[in-house]
Amino acid sequence: MQQSSAVKHPPEIVERPKDVAVRSGGIAAFYCRARGEPTPQLSWRKNGRKVSPQSPRYLVIPQPSMSVLRIDSAKAGKDDAKYECVAENGVGDAVVASATLSIYPAHSQSRCFIRAVWTSDESRRRFQLARSKKMSTHFLHLLV
């Protein structure tokens, strides 16, 4: 009986997916890279269930030792979830790395504006910088 001289290594995830936050209707993407011998097969799960490559808004782009999960037109309450990259190659146990997709409403974009506030001293103007989301304010004092 002849034995294979190839050394086999269990899968190892070397680039883990990262948490993503997108605006409702936006595009989200997760990346995952693994190594092992033989080359691991990568798949994706959403909340523990396998992501179907036939889904019209979920696109799985497999490449050697790497996979991309792209979610088009992300929907709050539907797509915000925990996503897992699963790597397996038949040697040892499958390994999993997870990330979370958060979706915020389209109208909650953080906007900044500057408002001039006149002071009693005409040689100084105070400008107020405010973020509309939290309405926290910062003051800039400029000499004119």
UniProtKB/TrEMBL annotation:
<feature type="domain" description="Ig-like">
    <location>
        <begin position="11"/>
        <end position="102"/>
    </location>
</feature>
<dbReference type="InterPro" id="IPR013783">
    <property type="entry name" value="Ig-like_fold"/>
</dbReference>
<dbReference type="InterPro" id="IPR007110">
    <property type="entry name" value="Ig-like_dom"/>
</dbReference>
<dbReference type="InterPro" id="IPR003599">
    <property type="entry name" value="Ig_sub"/>
</dbReference>
<dbReference type="InterPro" id="IPR036179">
    <property type="entry name" value="Ig-like_dom_sf"/>
</dbReference>
<keyword id="KW-1015">Disulfide bond</keyword>
<dbReference type="Pfam" id="PF07679">
    <property type="entry name" value="I-set"/>
</dbReference>
<dbReference type="InterPro" id="IPR013098">
    <property type="entry name" value="Ig_I-set"/>
</dbReference>
<dbReference type="InterPro" id="IPR003598">
    <property type="entry name" value="Ig_sub2"/>
</dbReference>
<protein>
    <recommendedName>
        <fullName>Ig-like domain-containing protein</fullName>
    </recommendedName>
</protein>
<keyword id="KW-0677">Repeat</keyword>
